[in-house]
Amino acid sequence: MIAAGVPVAWLVARSAGLVALALFALAVAMGLAFSTRLLGTRRGKMVLGWHQTIMWTALAMLVVHMVAVGLDPILNFGPLAIVVPGVASWRTLPIAGGIVTFWIMLALAISFHVRRRIGQRRWRLLHYASFAGFTIGLYHALGVGSDLTGARGLVFAGVAVAPVVWLVFARILLPRPGARPAPASRPAPVPVAATQAPQRAGDREVVHA
């Protein structure tokens, strides 16, 4: 189907891709807001819940984007070209970046449901991949998206990246609420014997036989 000379699939792909990237940026920012603990315990739990929901929503929009790209009659991508990096013949590297972003997002979304099995430490380490996925996804959008050319792309990138960068520095530099300073070391106690004044010979009672 073509509307005003442009395939509808291409219009859907463009809009879904922009929404997916914006939601992914929001999910990354909310994850950082939770990890900094600046919002407190109660709000932090609410932010974590929204973080998970937004991640799944972003992933769903990315699937819509990929399916629409596969249905576009002009691009004429096959099924493998939208799920396997490096298969697409048009703008191979940026397209591969978008596919890598999809797989990273899928792994992150699934990790919420296997968090107890893999452990808290591995779950946190896995979430560091969100920075790579977000960066690669932004590269894909700027390299392929026709809506992000010129100044519009720079503005979109700035709006998406600025909160993430600020929260990264906040997590590194700002002290976490509730963190207790290390207790000051106490001086070693002075032995009791050392505190007693030495007795003089004149102070002792002399007993004569």
Describe this structure in words.
The structure is a single chain. By secondary structure, the chain is mainly alpha-helical. It has one domain. It has helices at residues 8-36, 40-71, 92-111, 115-118, 120-127, 129-144, 151-173, 192-195, and strands at residues 2-3, 6-7. It has a two-stranded antiparallel ribbon with strand order 1-2. Strand 1 and strand 2 form a beta hairpin. Helix 1 (8-36) packs antiparallel against helix 6. The longest helix is centred in the first third of the chain and has 32 residues, at 40-71.
What's the β-strand tally?
2
Indicate the radius of gyration in whole angstroms.
30 Å
How many helices? The count is 8
Report strand order across the widest sheet. 1-2
